[in-house]
Automatic annotation (TrEMBL):
Keywords: Annexin, Basement membrane, Calcium, Calcium/phospholipid-binding, Extracellular matrix, Phosphoprotein, Repeat, Secreted. Belongs to the annexin family. GO terms for molecular function: calcium ion binding; calcium-dependent phospholipid binding; cytoskeletal protein binding; phosphatidylserine binding; phospholipase inhibitor activity. It comes from Seriola lalandi dorsalis. This is Annexin. It is found in: Secreted, Extracellular space, Extracellular matrix, Basement membrane. PROSITE patterns: ANNEXIN_1 (PS00223), ANNEXIN_2 (PS51897).
Amino acid sequence: MSMVSEFLGQLSLNIGAHEPTFPTVVPAVDFDPDRDAARIETAIKTKGVDEQTIIDVLTKRTYSQRRDIAFAYERRAKKDMISALKGALSGSVETVILGLMKSTAQYDASEIRGSIKGLGTDEETLIEILCSRSNDELVEIKKVYKELFKKELDKDVAGDTSGNFAKLLLALVQTKRAEPSSIVDYEKIDEDARALYDAGVKIRGTDVPTWISIMSERSVPHLQKVFQRYKSYSPYDMQESIQKEVKGDLQRSFLVLVQCFENKQLYFANRLNEAMKSKGAKEKIVTRIIVSRCEVDLKKICSEFKTNYGQSLQKTILEHTKGDYQKALLGLCGPEQ
């Protein structure tokens, strides 16, 4: 029972209360967890495993529905469904399916944990998740991280990173970002734009703490206007300024933040394109984005992808992946719009 209760114990669907969602995975109509559990049990028992049925069922149900299926399965088979899936599947498709047995916040928390425990840190994963998630998502991730790993996220991040990079990530994890306001404060916009310029391009060196506080505490709509205004002070836009002023992981983090403030779904579309077209397709990145965003904004990511690359994400997945892994990803993306 341990794994089911660990991951399915609490149902957290509090995704960005203030951000509209554009999911590709929506609740199945006429949902019957007992019927689905029976289909999965049969698929697992079939000689050679019927992966197609497992993919068809689990990629077309939301997390809360999958959770109901797992409980129904346990009642039927007197076995834990996650362990059964683990035994029946392997490779990339196993990673996708097991990822789907976690809520979005549990999945993100597990990915963060995986990136910082053990030897060396996977900074790329850490940056992608912490710099792209909304304040509400981060609040939920912190809560779930503590429930799953009995550790505080900020302490783990601090223990694994250093310098200004650590300070920026910790500022984001403290979730002090202001809520969007219906009142546009032009004075504050101008003040922040000026402060970003004065702390960077204008001077020798960079006053990084000023950049961190503005970018981790202001609301997203406010920052979008700040970056517009910034161009009237600086000969470079915000992304160019970041590239000139800071280096390494700090630069990468600020760039992801700014790209997400400007158009988060385009950021993910670019990541997917890069990951699929790079040598030795970076499956880990493709899996993480599609699994973690399918109930959040994957529909919008698909449309940004098509607009920018002239072909659909689905077609690109067909060209760059294969087998059951490909079928699972396509199941989560849904039909081309």
